[in-house]
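Try this one yourself first.
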């Protein structure tokens, strides 16, 4: 059974940090790009970061660039999202997802659109207080 399980959400003060984890099972972790998405109340889900299959490239939305970092531990089939300098606007349910990694030359890349992803976790709530 394919599973993605997020953890690490919670309540944090503005300016603080939080690390989210996404543990994958039931599929070959290294075959997929991994993306992080979030959905705030009343807003559409947005892609905020993704990492290609070979970890050769990562992408960040402008809203989180310089504050969030995606990383992976392939031995643990886990992807992380380190979130620093959190702002109240970061309050949302955060999801991880596995999807297509596109090849180019000797590397590969991910795309942040949700339709590129087929396996999704259940989400973890992050609330940033001002």
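Now uncover the answer:
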């Amino acid at each position: 059974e394919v599973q993605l399980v997020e953890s690490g959400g919670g309540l944090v003060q503005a300016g603080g940090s939080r690390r989210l984890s996404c543990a994958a099972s039931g599929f070959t972790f290294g075959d997929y790009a991994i993306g992080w998405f979030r959905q705030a109340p009343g807003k559409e889900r947005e892609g905020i970061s993704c990492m290609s299959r070979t970890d050769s490239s990562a992408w960040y939305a402008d809203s989180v660039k310089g504050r969030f970092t995606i990383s992976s531990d392939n031995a643990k089939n886990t992807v992380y999202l380190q979130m620093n300098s959190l702002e109240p606007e970061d309050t949302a349910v955060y999801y991880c997802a596995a999807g297509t990694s596109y090849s180019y030359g000797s590397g590969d890349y991910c795309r942040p659109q949700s339709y590129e992803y087929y396996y999704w976790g259940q989400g973890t709530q992050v609330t940033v207080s001002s």
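Discussion: Residues 95 and 123 are 4 Å apart (CA to CA). The chain has a mean pLDDT of 94.
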